[in-house]
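#onboarding

Welcome to the new folks! Below is a worked example of what a typical request in this channel looks like: someone posts a single protein sequence, and someone else replies with the predicted structure as tokens. Don't worry about understanding the tokens yet, we'll cover that in week two.

Example request:
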Amino acid sequence: MRKMFALLSLLVIASMALSACGGTAPTAAPSTGDTTTEATEAPSTDTGTDAPAAAEFKSADPSTLIVAESEVGIDTLDPALAYDTASAEIIQNTYETLVFYDGEATDKFVPMLAESWELSADGMTYTFKIRSGVKFHEGQDLTASDVAYSFQRGLLQGGTSSPQWLLAEPFFGVGVDDVSVVVDPEGTLYDDRELLSAFDSAAVVAACEKVKSAIVADDAAGTVTMTLAQPWGPFLPTIAQSWGAIMSQSWVVENGGWDGSCDTWQNFYGMASADNPFSGIVNGTGPFILEKFANGEEIILARNESYWAEPAKLERVILKQVPEWGTRFAMMQAGDADIATVPSANRSQMDELVGIYQEFDLAANTYGPLQEVCGYDDSALAAAKFTACAAGETGNNGQFLLRIGRPVLSMDVLLYNWNIATSEESPNPYIGSGALDGNGIPADFFSDVHIRKAFAYCFDFETLLSDVFSGEAVQSLQLPLAGMPGYFLDTPHYSFDTAQCEAEFKLADVDKDGIAAGDDPEGDVWTTGFRVQMGYNQGNPTRQTITEILSGSLASVNELFLVETLGLPWPAYLRAQRAKQLPLMTGGWLEDIHDPHNWYQPYTTGTYGGRQSLPDDVKAQFRDILERGVSETDPAARAEIYKEANTLYYDLAVGIPLEVATSHGFTQRWLQGVVLNPIFPGFYYYTMYKD
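Example response:
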């Protein structure tokens, strides 16, 4: 979800949140029996598919779930603004959406606050029937107007640091990723409330009226009608995430939020979390109430006894910040924590205490059966460490459950800046001399496709997978992930090939004299060499190693090729990206929805495409493909459309997909009812209970 993993490190995601990947437990609130045939019936919360825990594995306090985290850091609890997994996890357990994911499926949905829904024949108008008898935590009745207001407020609050681009595109069209572009199509108002407020008042009001006309409530009928700019295949998954959560309009207004008027919305545009009155308070309809919010210390969720469906099985969930791994490990050993953040470097300590495990079955796209551990070899990689018990054998009686091997829903991609920002007034420190003289690179160095391909062939994927991930990752072949339209095992991709790397460098024409570098008597990149800096955010060993692998490979091909690794504090790394100053970078993405549009858009026409300074004609080619792909509803037809995007991304070497890691997460054996859906931002506590 979340641009650049800003608030959760890849380490935390892989070791803690992804311990909830896979499985068969149901997810949505139970049906009240009044859903209609337009929507899939919500499943029961019966978790009978969970294997029973051994008798001796019992929690001393089954009413309270303890999660020991390395950091309890929440950016904001405003659903319209939250765009990090830590914040979204709390929102998902306290607020609710119109529809929700069905069990572990990433592409099936059940009613939640909507009893049912209908889609018009042209695929552009959704009508949601809002569930009656639902109350917010502070006692307000849920109305259709609350639903419409929540979506209107989110779109109008906008801002590029928020997830609202995911909703802006369906309502405004592909490429229109913020309401400010509706006000000024030239895109001069992004994230600038002052400029927006000073802009033509008629255009400001008209943008608000456009939003309101697209999302209309009928309280008498109990319906909300949403009219999209075009058919949008992944609309349901888009509104099933935390930014689709419903708030009480009266409560928002009472607490200093937008009053619903088109004359005032600009005063709330581009809201920052530090200034947002809803960053630390919650009033949702969900199964848990925010009882304590001590950011950086502890968060406590209490069971909502007045929940519209069956109340949760757990009375409380406590998220404790425990920075030291040794303390978290001791808590897990003593049974004082049910789940803990486990750094990858310390997994072996937990592995030795695993008593049962599940391996992910790629063919079935789910975890396999629970297996008792009868042997352990710490010299092996990943799941090979564990030997399952044969019939009649007794397991080792270890106290932890391990789930391992599921590809995560995130990826790292090597990105080139095609037109690096620099000027005499503000020289770029990352490109050396700024010229092709052996001591730098020109600003358009990566506009040469042969340079981009040469760098791609010079990346040693196997070293990355073995040295960084200890075999618990696979090479990425394309932007979409397995199970999506557009994912093909036979798609063309780059492999480590130093001979091909050399050949591409010799085909380049960086000095633009019409002569390939390998044949240029006046000298070019092959004989002159270059020096460039590749940045990474400090404290991210994966990205640091990526830069070192690339640097070493390039130097082995030509000693005149120098890539210097540069660690930057996160704020500086992010600023340099946004300013389009970084010549090379690793761009990570954790998907918001399990759909190819959520991968192609940021890496071509969206976030990273912008930071790479992709030319307008290249963006236009991708935009045409994306518009056709997102409008198509047939998965097979979508796959063929996105195959075009795969080919174009590869042919132009826009970026180089690197790796997809696999899960390796632990819980206590007494923890049951875990919803194992990889798209969730964290754990969904409603169905969980303890033996």
